[in-house]
Amino acid sequence: MLFWLVILSGKFSFAYFLQIKPLVEPTRDIIKETRIEYSWHDFVSKNNHNALTVVSVWAPVVAIYLLDIYVFYTVVSAVCGFLLGARDRLGEIRSLEALHKLFEQFPGAFMDTLHVPLPNRSSHQFSVQVVEKNKVDAARFAPFWNEIIRNLREEDYITNFEMELLLMPKNSGDLPLVQWPLFLLASKIFLARDIAVESKDTREEIWDRISRDDYMMYAVQECYYSIKLILTEILDDVGRKWVERIYDDIDTSIKNKSIHIDFQLIKLPLVISRVTALMGILRETETPELERGAVRAVQDLYDVMRFDVLTINMRENYDTWSLLTKARDEGRLFEKLKWPKNTDLKMQVKRLYSLLTIKESASSIPKNLEARRRLEFFTNSLFMKMPRAKPVREMLSFSVFTPYYSEIVLYSMAELLKKNEDGISILFYLQKIYPDEWKNFLARIGRDENTLESELYDSPSDILELRFWASYRGQTLARTVRGMMYYRKALMLQTYLESTTAGDLEAAMGCDEVTDTHGFELSPEARAQADLKFTYVVTCQIYGKQKEEQKPEAADIALLMQRNEALRVAFIDVVETLKEGKVNTEYYSKLVKADINGKDKSQEIYSVKLPGNPKLGEGKPENQNHAIIFTRGNAVQTIDMNQDNYFEEALKMRNLLEEFHSDHGLRPPTILGVREHVFTGSVSSLASFMSNQETSFVTLGQRVLANPLKVRMHYGHPDVFDRIFHITRGGISKASRIINISEDIFSGFNSTLRQGNVTHHEYIQVNLQVGKGRDVGLNQIALFEGKVSGGNGEQVLSRDVYRLGQLFDFFRMMSFYFTTVGYYFCTMLTVLTVYAFLYGKTYLALSGVGETIEERARITKNTALSAALNTQFLFQIGIFTAVPMVLGFILEQGFLRAIVSFVTMQFQLCTVFFTFSLGTRTHYFGRTILHGGARYQATGRGFVVRHIKFSENYRLYSRSHFVKGLEVVLLLIVYLAYGYNEGGALSYILLSISSWFMALSWLFAPYLFNPSGFEWQKVVEDFRDWTNWLLYRGGIGVKGEESWEAWWEEELAHIRSLGSRIAETILSLRFFIFQYGIVYKLNVKGSSTSLTIYGLSWIVLAVIIILFKVFTFSQKISVNFQLLLRFIQGVALLMALAGLAVAVILTDLSVADIFASLLAFIPTGWGILSIAAAWKPVMKKLGLWKSVRSIARLYDAGMGMMIFVPIALFSWFPFVSTFQTRLMFNQAFSRGLEISLILAGNNPNTGI
Fold first, then answer.
1. What is the per-residue pLDDT across 344-367, written as a single tens digit (0 to 9) for each?
2. What distance in Å separates the CA atoms of residue 109 and residue 114, rounded to the nearest whole number?
3. 492 half-sphere exposure, CB direction, 13 A CA radius
4. Of residues 1050 and 312, more confidently modeled
5. Residue 1065: pLDDT over 90
6. What DSSP designation does 522 have?
7. Are 339 and 291 in contact (CB under 8 A)?
8. Which one of 285, 400, 441, 694 is most buried, by most CB atoms within 10 A?
9. 0.85 cut: is pTM over it?
10. Transmembrane stretches, by residue range (predicted)?
């Protein structure tokens, strides 16, 4: 309630003081104005208090009044979401530096959140007990951390060397400290050595300088204790006495604060070099020669310590030193070494060697950006509030559910090597986009990093690994299955490690049982427990048909089942039998798993006979509905097949499931919402725009919807449903055709209507961080937004939304409205505001009212009236809708990085992209509201860095953007030509700049964001392709991509009902205002405002249409009278030119009037064309359809040329293409990727 009171008070204050109050007095003045001379024949305003003038002034104000509440909602919700995110500790670890700095807190945080509670863990008070507690925490944390790192290596995000640095020791040995991963301690010993050698300070000062860096201190302490441990283990009794004597002397010197006196610290490098040499030998496999070398190395270390470093008085321990000296002189000292054979000791030797040899800082480890992001989010989430985890045996069981139809399961080698028109294959693309991951892959399969892919073909196993490597970087089912099976792997690890009870932990610290996890995947108990708690069902609707037809997808699904034993596949099996001479079709819903005895065979688990064909409604929800019976457990998570999952996030699933038992208000949760990570923001600027936009909604936006607004719905995968609640209340998918095109959100509607509660949780990015693939080409983005907008239009018409509106209280209803259909309505209203503003200005300009009133206002010095007529429409809703994105950046990236990111996006013309998207949403939402019939758009899930042809862009955007953009340009030109502007050019620019920006964005964004869009060779090819498409007449079975005629018929398919035709006719009437206004501005009409002038203009238009028909008369029909036709065409042309010349000479018709007439007739012709197209059946009956079609072709040709010519002009300059490439692929350049190789292609240049 408070939330909306803030918004409403801001909205009404803004509306009253800045919109309504300033216009009241000017409106009264306009109403009082009399004896206004109109430029045209006025029907309404002359004797009606200038009604149309008042409407022109107030229309954009009313429109803004209706939509400004959404702007206030956007800003307030963004601020609210920012504060809630900060409270939840989001973004605290946003860099590697922060991860390094806070790493020592991770084991404790992990034990507090992701580990099952242990008794007496928090009772330690003394320093020794605190160290022991920290060590126990580290020992429990290490197996999980190490498994996360190993999975990163298996996924090829990190190198073998990086994995070694990131792995954490087991901390199960005798060292009295916590051993941290090497990436924290690398190079610290050398820095500490330099401080000790170069410093002339006292011991306290030296140690104080070292202790300023915690990890430098830990490295020094670990080396100190490790050397003692290793030497004690490998040396004989005499050797042990020497080690004990040295360490006792050091401890005494430290206690007496005389270490810089008793020891020559300047010789420290010498000691380190001797220890390093010894460790280098001991880490190898034992041989007689190496054993002798080790003895010599220990003796060298003894000599250095005895003669170079020690300056203490040895008389105090005379017996020990004399024994050692005698043994050394006789060559007996250290002659027998116990070679390290214990696994822990060998690991300790290798670790000490690494500590003493790694000189480079590991502050940039890992280098891969995705690996960094994942580790940063996981470690950050350890400090966020979440329910305590229960043991696996006590946790809620759950299923994961993925619908699949016929998308790519696993890339075949043919698909990977197939080249597009530019000569680029998918494999080549992936190698250039992920160069580090390609090298890591080659290293993982035992190949050199410079190996060519062709060298892998001789090994079937390498070919299979290559196919999986590529598939894991695309939007494939294989990637989704791998990600979801991490749940099972996480549960097995958790079960395995929980098998040691808390009471046995301290006793087991010295053995490997607690911390050695290499066998957890083979543990029968762990596998059984995981299978009890987790099921993964992929509902492959046509898998049976694919098997019958031996499609490669069926074989690939069988391969996935073989590799993932817990994977279950549901499908609809169609069985046809002969019964009494008739074909009887039966439908079965089946569930199968891999048959362990057969490679491509599957074992049937369940078969349920259905009463008929289950596919009655939309395909995807019906696919889910038939298979929901095969899920098990208390919860079901819906995952789309363009999603991924990560092992470290799967560890948090049992915490998330506990939310069902947590307090979330009056009602328990029925849907657990989780944030998504959109993982396609990697290469092009469009990808980053889209991912930033979606990330803003799925994090900051949904955070506010869930709390405090309580109107979060289900916006698609990967939310977790209370399975029992939903399958007893209509399921999770409504499937009615058309109305449920966006089936996801209806699950949320259904849950809320039945008194459910939808929550949102951000400690887990399911896409646990389930990464969600999103299409990154502008066309794919437009199709996706069109699908969502059309689906939202259908929601407006649904009974679910009606019922929610009826049942919600006022404030919750407002929240619901502005986060669903209200968002799209306000988006459409933003565009309509521009139209209202420009048509109002056009009316004032063409009628002459604007000029008259402004002159009178200037004379009477009525500044308020003058200001009202010159309102500058600089209001851009896009500026305010960027607020959530900016605040999201600040929260999760930090202020400076957020500002840099936002400024970079501006330079990459993100405003153009978002303005273009505004047009997309407006068009599809508006068309669905007017005509209905939203349909599922297959957006494609391939890799999109290819040049899109001009004709393809024209087909997709002609009606949604180009027509509307040219209409806005026409309005601006009319206002420029006939409007009255006392301020001159500057006033016009300020008045119209935002409208010009919108129009140009709509016209040229598809070509601006088109790879190689300004490359001359491509432009020439595009023009040839476009003219072929435009002139090809088509026929039966010809698709819209091949012929303009077929495309035009498709574009009119949505106008089906009488209501649609009437609505289209009414909307098209606006185009006739241009002709009516402009003809009265021509010089030829003199001072007359008679209707006769308007009538004569229609006669001229009719003559022009007749001339057009004469010159475009069909050659097929005229084959028998070609000569006569050409004679008629010649005479008509001469008569037209003669008539025009006579009119110019004998009347006041000027050349400017001719161009003005074009400005008048072009929109009128489009209006007639639009009305004729709406009444297509009538036109066909009248025999006029072919004429209408030929005029429509002329208009499309003209519009195409208007857009094409500027592109061709810019293509003459090579630097434009270079600039565009940098603008589109700045992320790729900044990461050092060879994007130019992808754009240039592998094909040799062909001459044009």
1. 888 888 888 888 888 887 788 889
2. 8
3. 21
4. 1050
5. yes
6. G
7. yes
8. 400
9. yes
10. 57-84, 816-838, 873-891, 962-980, 986-1009, 1062-1079, 1091-1111, 1123-1146, 1152-1173, 1194-1215
